Amino acid sequence: MQVVQTGRGAVRGVTGLRPESRRNAMSTKLNACVIGLGSIGWGAAVSLLREGFPTVAVDIREEALAKFVAEGGRRAATPAEGAAEADLVMVFVVNAAQTETVLFGENGAVAAAKPGTTFVICVTMPPSAMSDICARLEAAGMKAIDAPTSGGSGKAASGETTLMASGPDAVLDGVMPALEAMSGRIYRLGDTCGAGSRVKMINQLLAGVHIAAMAEAMTLGAKMGVDLGTLYEVITGSAGNSWMFENRGAHVVNGDYTPHSAVDIFVKDLGIVVSEAGDGCPTPLSDTALALFKEASAAGMGREDDAAVAKLLAKKAGVKLPGVED
């Protein structure tokens, strides 16, 4: 494992070992509980299993739990049941409100967890909300880490997400083998919860704006009669490319809007950006992208892949995208 430190209080990048190296290096197997088996939570849970961590999962979907049991994991009916014997509880629900519920609500994890259990909150939420939740966890006698992730379902499944972690060094060190099992790169962003969420918020600003730009570019290309497969190939090899263009542009070319990350996720995430920025920092690109995602959601695309914003623009432009019937 390589650690890069650029000075006191600076970002330290921790590059995780490849899975086979991690397996040989790891000496402690924590009992883990994963709450939320969405695309990222599922990847984290199966990555922990793959690295030998006893893992129990909690989800409201029976099919997700059955699939996890088939992978060799265990299931729990409630967050309280899942957390009761855990050393580490990782939360992968959608937003701050759901996090509050699974932690502190009826049958919540905190009341049932052993004192000193480490809670790693991997939910994208306002940094202020993350700080509050971590403070409540600590007041309840638990340890807390703010650790949103990035990388999408593919990297989550292979244990190669980027993790943006903040919290006390001793707490992070105690669960680092488990975090390495699910992450290709871990950034330690300070000893106070909320710092990780601030960086994730900026990441989501860029991700949302880049998806909107991809949609606009593909729509304009289609309107001008450019073959979208050719356009995709040229742009991905040129200076105008971005990770989001390369990833989501392929969805448009293939006409595949299977929701790996839904439109409504960016309604939430860009909403966080605009709200947290407030009047003190202009966010004109975020404002525009957020309006586009909101319009797509209102048009019934909220649960479709976030690349579906291209369908909205194409309809307005009077052009037909691959795989789109109307």
UniProtKB/TrEMBL annotation:
Pfam family, one: NAD_binding_11
Keyword Oxidoreductase: yes
Transcription listed as a keyword: no
GO molecular function: NAD binding; NADP binding; oxidoreductase activity, acting on the CH-OH group of donors, NAD or NADP as acceptor
Entries under InterPro entries matching the protein: 6-PGluconate_DH-like_C_sf (IPR008927), 6PGD_dom2 (IPR013328), 6PGDH_NADP-bd (IPR006115), HIBADH-like_NADP-bd (IPR029154), HIBADH-related (IPR015815), LtnD (IPR050006), NAD(P)-bd_dom_sf (IPR036291)
Keywords: Carbohydrate metabolism, NAD, NADP, Oxidoreductase
Catalytic activity entry: L-threonate + NAD(+) = 2-dehydro-L-erythronate + NADH + H(+)
Domain 3-hydroxyisobutyrate dehydrogenase-like NAD-binding residues, every copy: 194-313
EC number: 1.1.1.411
Domain annotation 6-phosphogluconate dehydrogenase NADP-binding: ranges: 33-189
Entries under SUPFAM superfamilies matching the protein: 6-phosphogluconate dehydrogenase C-terminal domain-like (SSF48179), NAD(P)-binding Rossmann-fold domains (SSF51735)
Catalytic center residues: 200
Family assignment from sequence similarity: Belongs to the HIBADH-related family. L-threonate dehydrogenase subfamily.
Function of the protein: Catalyzes oxidation of L-threonate to 2-oxo-tetronate. Can use either NAD(+) or NADP(+) as cosubstrate, with a preference for NAD(+).
NCBIfam families: ThreonDh (NF043037)
Listed name of the protein: L-threonate dehydrogenase
UniProt source species: Aliiruegeria lutimaris
